[in-house]
Design brief:
Chain A: This is SRPBCC family protein. The complex is a heterodimer. By secondary structure, chain A is of the alpha+beta class. Helices cover 21% and strands 35% of the residues of chain A. Chain B contains 13 helices and 18 strands. Classes of the chains: A alpha+beta, B alpha/beta. The structure holds nicotinamide-adenine-dinucleotide and zinc ion (2 copies).
């Protein structure tokens, strides 16, 4: 006799098999002690993202739903690609993807939901990406995506710091060269 | 600037470092006037806390004068402040519950991985401690950068000497929270392992919180005499069977609450301790838990265990059976310093608490390495070392 069995309730990114077809899935959720509207508004303006995403040099709008992303690669190189917003639901969700033919194939969603009992907002980022091929792919993978899970985790933590504490914690005692 | 620097096990030196700068808007820079050496620093000195790096500036008990402020600091140049050793943002879920030492936002993101692996959750930032807690340069230095300076530092009222308020940075709130975690009730006997600074402040606090009887346990007679000053009874574990004595001193019941103010480097030659000692020598991250094991056996049925003593890694031969079968409650943690500073400052001002009796030695910062050596090797006489910096 076959028992009827359902999958567990854990999100895909926590599964042992964390792939969807060709794409690897990474992501993380974090609870931020700030209202949903505030967090959504900050994220919706993509130009803000480099403030907490260290690998991103800048994001410039190129159209109402499009933007050009510049990623820092080793040896001072920059890699750029163009992304488009594919879905927005106010104060709930933003989804984007790299335009077909880009050097980096990636798509992401960030969603915002109320945490229980006034504990702020649960922010969940889900990023899918295709590990890129070729020399450039290896270069990019090394920096940007070698440990995408760790990267995603650090970025969400920095986002939380910026939103809650108003600044990003550092143990440095001196300003970095770029900040002078 | 000059600063006491960690170079390896039992190797600390005063070196020259660049002066700190304001980096974030909520920062302030202090010119340090007084800074103390703590039992926690001894764990670093002995190399038993994981995550130290050569070149780290130590010191988490310090006070001084504000010399520079960021745009969002609430401090003003020239103010004298004491700084909590826990770095806390004041805004996160934990800070708002006054669980400041669990702050989510003070340990730099990239430094959080290690403690997340080791402890399941990321620790908050602490001054002059391991890189598990951020690797923040500490205050045994001429200058120190203080993040979130609008939340932690407490301004010292006019006319109060450094020595009377310095310990608000750590050991006084730590002893106080240790006693609070013992949830003292009328008629209680509270037994405190360790008559170091933390244990002695726990003794004093437990008395103030109305314990019927406080018993201080150590093997240094002078330290035990200090406990007597506050009306505690004492047990010298070098001369006396501790468990038996505690039963006999409590009418066969056992202490209602026990406090472990020893931590991960318990002294003594009990079998479990010798085994732990060997382990700690060969593997970082192994704790020596003799005092805590003994406390768990001593505490009465349904009793409370409070652990201010620091542990950093793994401990085995843990009497879990005693805990479960006796129905024990255990509370612990790095101190939520910011929760206690205002109330304790008031108690000092009103003369209810005195802290200066603890200080056995003042040394200039330049002689800090000597201070470490003496506080480590001659614990009986060297009860607390205060370094004067500027
Ligand atoms: N929870 C916190 O936030 C916090 C803050 C400060 C210090 N601490 C910790 O508290 C502990 C004590 O700090 P301290 O400054 O008083 O240190 P300390 O080293 O001066 O004192 C420890 C005392 O314990 C005694 N001792 C050792 N083995 C013993 C045993 N088996 N039974 C009874 N006594 C024993 C020693 O003789 C010594 O007098 C350390 O582990 C320190 O790291 C914790
Ligand atoms: Zn301390
Ligand atoms: Zn916080």
């Amino acid at each position: 006799m076959m028992l009827e069995q359902s999958e567990d309730d854990a999100p895909k990114r926590a599964r042992r098999d964390d792939r969807e077809g060709e794409m690897a899935v990474v992501g993380r959720s974090v609870t931020i002690n700030r209202p949903r509207v505030t967090l959504f508004a900050f994220w919706r303006d993509f130009q803000n993202l480099p403030r907490f995403m260290e690998a991103i040099e800048k994001i410039e709008p190129t159209g109402p739903q499009r933007s050009r992303w510049t990623i820092r690669a080793p040896a001072g190189q920059m890699v750029t690609f163009e992304a488009e917003v594919t879905d927005v639901k106010d104060n709930e969700r933003i989804a984007w993807r790299a335009l077909p033919g880009s050097q980096i194939m990636t798509e992401g969603t960030v969603s915002f939901s109320d945490a229980p009992a006034g504990r702020g907002t649960i922010v969940t980022a889900n990023i899918k990406y295709q590990p890129p091929g070729g020399d450039l792919g290896r270069l990019v993978a090394k920096l940007f995506m070698a440990e995408p899970n760790i990267q995603a985790r650090h970025e969400l933590k920095r986002f939380k710091m910026l939103m809650e504490a108003g600044e990003i914690a550092t143990a440095d005692n001196r300003k970095s060269k770029e900040d002078r | 600037m000059r600063a006491l620097t960690w170079h390896g096990t039992n190797d600390v030196r005063v070196d020259t470092h660049p002066d700190p700068e304001i980096i974030n808007p909520r920062d302030a820079i202090l010119k340090v006037t007084s800074t103390a050496i703590c039992g926690s620093d001894l764990h670093l000195y002995d190399g038993v806390i994981p995550g130290m790096a050569s070149g780290d500036i130590l010191g988490h008990e310090f006070m001084g004068e504000v010399v520079e402020v960021g745009s969002k600091s609430s401090l003003k140049k020239g103010q004298r402040v004491v700084v909590p050793f826990t770095i806390s943002c004041g805004q996160c879920f934990f800070c708002q519950k006054q669980q400041y030492s669990a702050c989510d936002n003070s340990n730099p993101a990239a430094k959080q991985d290690a403690s997340e692996k080791l402890y399941g959750h990321a620790m908050s930032g602490i001054f002059g401690y391991s890189h598990l807690t951020g690797g923040y340069p500490g205050g045994q230095a001429e200058y120190v950068r203080v993040p979130f300076s609008d939340v932690g530092p407490i301004v010292v009222p006019e006319g109060m000497d450094d020595d009377t308020v310095l310990f608000l940075s750590d050991i006084l709130p730590t002893g106080w929270m240790a006693a609070e975690n013992a949830q003292i009730e009328r008629g209680d006997t509270v037994a405190v392992w360790g008559a170091g600074p933390v244990g002695l402040f726990a003794v004093q606090s437990a008395m103030l919180m109305g314990a019927e009887q406080v018993i201080s346990i150590d093997h240094h007679p002078h330290r035990l005499d200090l406990a007597k000053k506050f009306g505690a009874k004492t047990i010298n574990f070098g001369e006396t069977h501790v468990l038996e004595a505690l039963m006999e001193m409590t009418g066969g019941i056992g202490p209602d609450a026990v406090i472990d103010a020893v931590g991960m480097e318990a002294h003594g030659f009990a079998v479990d301790n010798v085994l732990d000692l060997v382990k700690q020598k060969i593997s970082p991250g192994a704790d020596r838990g003799h005092a805590l094991r003994q406390a768990l056996l001593a505490v009465r049925k349904g009793g409370r265990v409070s652990v201010p003593g620091v542990y950093g890694g793994m401990l085995d031969k843990w009497p879990l059976g005693a805990m479960m079968e006796k129905g024990i409650t255990l509370k612990t943690g790095q101190t939520h310093v910011q929760k206690y500073t205002h109330d304790l400052l008031r108690r000092i001002q009103e003369g209810e608490i005195d802290t200066t009796w603890l200080i056995s030695h003042h040394l200039p910062l330049e002689q800090a390495a000597e201070g470490y050596k003496q506080f480590h090797d001659n614990q009986n006489e060297w009860t607390k070392v205060v370094l004067t910096a500027n």
